[in-house]
Write a structure and sequence with these properties.
With 287 residues, this protein is mainly β. It contains no helices and 21 strands. The protein folds into two domains: 131 residues, Sandwich (Immunoglobulin-like), CATH 2.60.40.640; 136 residues, Immunoglobulin-like (Sandwich).
């Protein structure tokens, strides 16, 4: 029997994001010219985690942590799909979605609905399509800190410029709290005592660390989320000020799970005329 599969796709109700426990409305569309022998059309909602570090040639592979089977048997009658346009609505409850949708250069967490026309009993071909959707969730980390508690750091470093001692810099910094939400501003009160012969600047950075985990293997990835630079502090001088760092509205929450761990720190750097000196780092939590 000759046939032409002119359209085969899954449509997911357009939403910015879904949450675990919500109903996901979908539609399967099959447009067929001719007749196609097949047994079933299988539909599965899948959540997967994948990590591969190309420079390290290490691959954790793909783990399907969520699989919701939806078998639409009523589409296929007498093992033949006839010349027609099929529009089949269906839905499912999103459960076991304990990770947010997340993509970095070395891996991802993604959710999608996949449809497969099972044709293996009649030929070697199968036909599949999938549609991705976004899942968002709050942090699953219960902090031992008291929320809105200021967090402080005091460090003094001996500075070298191309190996030559140029003096010391003392940095005192404290943050307004330790727990934030996407879109918040982080306010850092600091005092910089510059006892060197160079102009320096306080330069805090929010860093996100992603750890993909599988059994005893951890693959880490560090990404700059946001940063800001304070005013310059002249040589043999001091400055006290407040510097703010804006968190993106799409910032992923702090997560700790068996597959992925997402953690945040504010790293405290001092810029010394095109040279960066690390002082300290303070962990924060994104809810």
């Amino acid at each position: 029997m000759g046939f032409q599969l002119t359209r085969f796709e899954v449509l997911v109700e357009p939403k910015h994001y879904y949450k675990s426990g919500e109903r996901v409305n979908c539609m399967l569309i099959i447009e067929l010219n001719g007749s196609l022998k097949c047994k079933h059309v299988f539909i599965t909602a899948i959540g997967e985690c994948h990590a591969k570090f190309y420079r390290q040639t290490r691959d954790l592979g793909t783990t399907h942590f969520m699989s919701i089977p939806l078998n639409l048997r009523d589409i296929v009658k007498t093992d033949i799909m006839q010349n027609a346009l099929y529009r089949v609505p269906f839905d499912f409850i999103l459960h076991n979605a304990f990770l947010p949708s997340y993509k970095v250069k070395n891996g991802h967490v993604m959710y999608y609905v996949e449809a497969i026309i099972d044709n293996k009993l009649f030929s070697d071909n199968t036909y599949n399509t999938k549609q991705e959707f976004t899942v968002k969730m709050p942090s699953n980390v219960v902090t031992t800190h008291t929320r809105d508690r200021p967090v402080a750091s005091v460090r003094e470093n001996l500075l070298r410029y191309y190996g030559i001692k140029i003096g010391t810099v003392r940095l005192s910094a404290h943050m307004d709290k330790d727990t934030y939400y996407p879109g918040d501003k982080i306010y850092i009160n600091f005092h910089l005592a510059n006892r060197s012969t160079r102009v320096v600047r306080f330069w805090p950075q929010v860093i996100r660390k992603t750890s993909f985990k599988k059994e005893y293997i951890y693959l880490d990835s560090n990404d700059l989320v946001s940063a800001n630079c304070a005013d310059a502090c002249l040589e043999n001088n001091s400055i006290s000020d407040i510097v703010s760092i804006s968190l993106p509205f799409d910032c992923i929450s702090t997560i700790d799970s068996s597959l992925v761990e997402i953690a945040y720190t504010v790293k405290l750097f001092v810029d010394i005329q095109n040279s960066i000196e690390y002082f300290d780092e303070i962990p924060i939590f994104i809810r």
